[in-house]
Amino acid sequence: MTRLSPVSPDTVMAALAEAASLGGFFAIAVGGPETGWRPADDAYADGMQDLVDATALRYGAAEMRIAASITQLGHAARLWSPVLYGAAAHGIVLDLGELRRAESGPALGVPAPRGHRVPAPDGRLAEALYQAVVVRHLDRLAAGLRVKVAAGLLYGNAASALAEAARATLTARPELHAGLAELTGELLSTGRLSGTGRIISARLGFRRRSCCLYYRVPDGEKCEDCSLAKQAGDQGIAEKNALGPR
Fold it and tell me: Are strands 100-102 and 93-94 parallel, antiparallel or unpaired?
C-alpha cells in the first residue's frame, strides 16, 4: 500500500486554481453550500442516468449505450484533468473521496481542499493516481450504468481522457514534458488501462484500441485517436468535441 503524506489546504487550493485556468475540464469547485450538489457515489449508483438521458437528447443518440459512453468519457475527462495536472505540476494526489456532482450538470466539486504526496522512496505515484480516479470513481460508475457498455470501451474512454488531459497539460506547461510523459505512460500500463492504447508521438498523441461510439450520433465523426479512424500518420491528436455535456 502506497504511503501518503497530507498536503496543506492552501497548497491544494493553489494547485486547483492553476489547473482550472486550463479550462472547464480542469475545474473543481471547492466548498460552498451543499445545496445544488449530490455525492458522486449517489450519482454512480444510478449510473448518472440523468446525464445519460440529457446526453442522448443533446446528441440525438439512437442507442442509450452511446449516450452512456459519451457521458462516461466526459466524466473521466473531468476527473483526470485536474488530478493529472496536480500530480505532474505539483506532485499532489488530489483527494476526491468526498467528490460531489452538480445536480444540474456534469460539474464537479469537493467540500474542502485535500490532497497528499507520495513520498519519494515509495515511487508509486501512478498507482496512487490510478486508485484515486479509476478504482475510487470510474469503476463505481461502470458498475452503476443502467445500460450494458463493454468494459473495453469504458476503459478505453478512461485512457483516452487521460491522454487528452496529458496533452492539454503539456500544451500549457511544456517544461513538464519528461515527467508528464513518464507518468502518463505508467498510468496507461496500470490495471484496467493496460492494453487500451498507446502513445504514438512525442507530443503525447494517443491511439486507442476501442471506439467511444460518438461517430454513431447524427453529424458525429470518428475521434482522431479512435481505433476506427484512418491512420493519418502518428501525429498529435486534436481535442475531442465528444466529451459530454459541458
Answer: unpaired
Residue 206 included in any domain: yes
Query: Residue 95: which domain range?
Result: 5-216
74 occurs within a structural domain: yes
Distances (CA, A) of 176 to 57, 90, 117, 128, 173: 39, 10, 18, 19, 6
Number of domains in the chain: 1
pLDDT digits (tens, 9 = 90+) for 23-64: 999 999 999 998 999 999 999 999 999 999 999 999 999 899
The answer to whether residue 99 sits within a structural domain is yes
Q: Are 169 and 176 in contact (CB under 8 A)?
A: yes
Q: Burial of 104 by CB count in 10 Å (0-12 exposed, 13-18 middle, 19+ buried)?
A: exposed
- 201 burial (CB, 10 Å; 0-12 / 13-18 / 19+) is middle
H or E element: which one contains 198?
Answer: strand 197-199
What is the enclosing helix (H) or strand (E) of 164?
A: helix 151-172
Amino acid in the structure at residue 212? C
Helices of type H across 2-138: 9-20, 40-45, 49-59, 64-90, 125-130
- The 8 Å CB, 24+ separation contacts for 100-104 are 100/34, 100/37, 100/38, 100/39, 100/40, 101/37, 101/38, 101/39, 101/40, 101/43, 101/48, 102/36, 102/37, 103/36, 103/37, 103/38, 104/36
The CA angle 165-243-162, to the nearest 5 degrees, is 25
Q: What is the pLDDT of residues 114-136, one digit of tens each?
A: 999 987 655 589 999 999 999 99
